[in-house]
Records
---
Amino acid sequence: MMALDRLLNVARKEFSDHITSRRFVIILALFLVISAIGMHTGIGHYNDRLESYNQQLQHMEESDVHIKVAGPYAGWMPEKPSIMLIFSAMMAYMTTLGAVLAIAIGFDLVSKEKETRSLKSLLSHPIYRDEIINGKAVGGIAALGFAMALALAISLAMLLLFSVVPTLEEFTAILIFGAVSLGFLLAYFAIALTMSTVSRESGNALIYTLVIFFTVSTLLPVLGMMAGDAFAGEPPEPPQTAPMPREVIRVGNGGHFTTSVSNAAVHGGEAEEDPVGVDPEWQQYEEDMKAYSEKRLLINDVTNLLSPQMNYYKAAMAVTNPRIAAMMNSPYSSPPMSQETPGLAEALSTVWMNIAALIVFPSVFFAAAYIKFMRMDIR
């Protein structure tokens, strides 16, 4: 029966070995430096957006201009930028250097013990197999948590250094972003740990892990797009007749645009307002295109659930840029620009499947590593 104190002893040893490892320190330092550079760039963009927002408000107050747009865009106002946009720059570095850091921690956790034949002597002590594999997993998770906490601490320090103070909601969003990022790192750590358990040599474990990394991060999303195209069939053909003329009025402010459309039917050289407002043939074509695109998107999304990169991207985007995330998840039912940006809870509710996948994916590999280690023949 597994004893918690023995498990924690193994975990403490593994954690100490990780954070004092030259390999871990080098990759972590590179990750933190590049993340800090990305944060600095993001803060600059945020300050530019904030200055533009303040100028727009001042101009509206001075000129007493109120934008009046019919329909759902009535009462549109420029939107104040959120500091979470700054963390968007960290996403790209997390999917590359973060994954490398996770793989570097896990690919030789067990295989190194096999190569040095220290695993047999370790099991000769009053300690059970499940305590060893679980302790190694907990120690690696703690090391990744330490790296993620350090990255967030540096990010918050940079925000305060540039006089950017997050609100309570934004601070909560930052913590959720850190938790989602940690879940992404655990996915590749779990793969590396499993391959280390399966392989006899660390070199083979690293190769197998990199092959899986390439497959789920690059190849799988491409195959998902191909599967979406194949199962959705051919796109509908547009009507042969030209669409009815439309008068398009675009009102822009702060990077957001609203569009007012009016259709007119031309008879005898005079324009008359179409009571329906839409060409029937083109209306049917647009409905068919919507159904085709949604079917294609559904197949692509189901395939992408197997990719930690895609799940992390969607979940992190929901935290850092909820409006863009809503447009990505529902391109045909996105909220108009006049509406407020979705709240944090609402944005997360649209990506719950991606968050669940980030939990299930490493859990499956951790279970595989556990079963393999418990049945492993150690001689």
Note: The two ends are 23 Å apart (CA to CA).
---
Amino acid sequence: MRTQSRSRVFAAAAGLGVAALALSACTGDMQPDASDVDCTDYEEYGTFDGAEVTIGGTILDLEADRLVESWSDFSACTGIQIDYQGSSEFEAQIAVLAEGGNAPDIGIVPQPGLLARLAEGGWLIPASEAVEAHVDEFWSEDWKTYGTYDDTFYAAPLMASIKGYIWYSPSEFEENGWEIPATLDDLEALSEQIAADGDHKPWCVGLESGDATGWPGTDWIEDWMLRLHGADVYDQWVTHEIPFNDPQVVEAFDAVGGYLKNEDMVNGGIGDVSTLVTEAFQTAGLPILDGECSLHHQASFYETFWNPEGGDEVTVASNGDIFGFLPPPANAGDPLSVTGGGEFPVAFTDAEEVEAVRAYLSSDTWANNRVSLGGVISANTGVDPENASSELLVQSIEILQDPETTFRFDGSDLMPGAVGADSFWKGIVAWVSGDDTETVVDEIEASWPAS
């Protein structure tokens, strides 16, 4: 998963020579004024007049603006100036920046696998007691594990997402008498019915995401792996207890291929199958609004992309312009299972002001502030779901907080970087471009690190 293609540039030296990344986003560089802020909620973090903390990540555009807004009162009350810069190259470059001593004070990483790589490199600062206390209070043990490497706790979760919503137009469903599918077979039947009607292709899909092109396809595979084979097999696949070319993985690929590699199913409003790898994931669902496709598989965070400028022209609601349903189970009555993702603010600088920022970001105060600004959710148990900006996001938070939900973190994000952030993405691109399933899963399996 790439939590979004959130792309602006952080900066720095990369590669064998010095390749400068063009600066394209720098936010939060103005010190807020505390005179109009109630600082009661921020007293526990102390004061650091004149301190500056830099943060880098993949969060961009409207979401970056909201991120900066979410800490503006904290910044005003503590005196910490926070400079956030987002980059489409952050994931690819952060290890290079860290090795060269050019990393930001805090990096918001969307992959536990990348966190493990950075920790293994010796570049990360373990989380403070204050951060760990917040995680123990507000997050499940599974979420804490995602921020832990080799028994050392490095980072609290930040935001979260449910990865597999299927977005649709409620009015189109009502007009055609379509029901929300109750099983994967029902979803296939609905897709075939829409295709047979001949007015438009049922699905619209975009896999393009810069250096991370292909990741939306991994989300499809992960959803089908979890539903077809259950949580235990999913865990075995992610941890390589079964090989990547196991027949169960092949089955999931082939089931998804019935959509992504099928000219009758994609790519509504965009083109043929070849356009999957050229269409940006941010815009791929928009043909639903024009009646050019009916279904789009993308995470809960996609709500932001229906109104990219922050307006409310498109209403996300069960009786609105757009809504979403979760991919159904393989069999009626199977337990609710969801895949999801999140981000983790890791520290490269050992400083009190850095840990103060990270403690705030791990708190229920920050989580409620950010969720209230719209477009995102959190698995922080201190979040009031009613603070979410839409019916779908309220539902998403309730799902994450429900102890009966079977939740599994995005599989590619848990896999070693050589697989989850490289061969799996590239394999998806090759696969939808014509390579057969066996060839692709064999090549991904061969890329799995020996140790």
Note: Confidence is low (pLDDT under 50) at residues 1-26.
---
Amino acid sequence: MARDAGHEARYRAIAADLAAKIRAGRYAPGEALPPQRELSASYGVTLMTLRQALRQLSDEGLIVQQAGRGTFVSPPHLAYQLGSLRSLADDLRKQGHEVRTLVLGRAVRRVPARIAARLRTGPEETALRLERVREFAGRAAIHQVSWVRQPAADRIRERDFTGTSLYAALADAGVAVARAAETIRPGLLDAAVARHLGEPAGSPVFVSDRVTYALDGAAVVTDRATILGSMMEIRTDRAATGASLSWGAAS
């Protein structure tokens, strides 16, 4: 029993030391910790003891362990109010977070059947397909494909979406949006999106499907966002008068 107590004291001491270094900025948000073998040697413990310490830090939300890549300090806190009618990037920037947008492609294409059903368009109609990746905390975290219905598509197709949100571009083009319906579900990262997010296929993700409607009730935009489960989580703040939902950094 004394030996077990000593083992527990060692991994807790290691966890406390690493936590202090993270909070002091020795390891910055998003930065990789040294390899496990290097850490275990520096603390003079076995890999099993070190891994228990890392598990404790993971439970406390201070680190994120990514299979095949290593152990990283958790990204800074991010909150995205799901109840607001803003783009994800605008919501995060409004709260002071730096978000970088990479435009992977844009083209006016014939609408696939699945998208046509969401936009309530005919099979021969075209729409603007806009593909983007959102980066925060120094890494790609969100892959997003948006389809914008005509005639709005032609009005915004040349906009610079690295610095302008889709909603802002629509507003500038005279398209007023009234509401959006969004469904979020857990999923697994598929191979096509995995290469853009730098994570192995099969990693846990959130998949958000959103349809945005104009004042007259017509569907204007449909989006699918794939969000790394290791980077963000959904939080809820419940009260007697209602509930507030937000995105936050994964813990």
Note: Residues 77-83 have pLDDT under 50 and may be disordered.
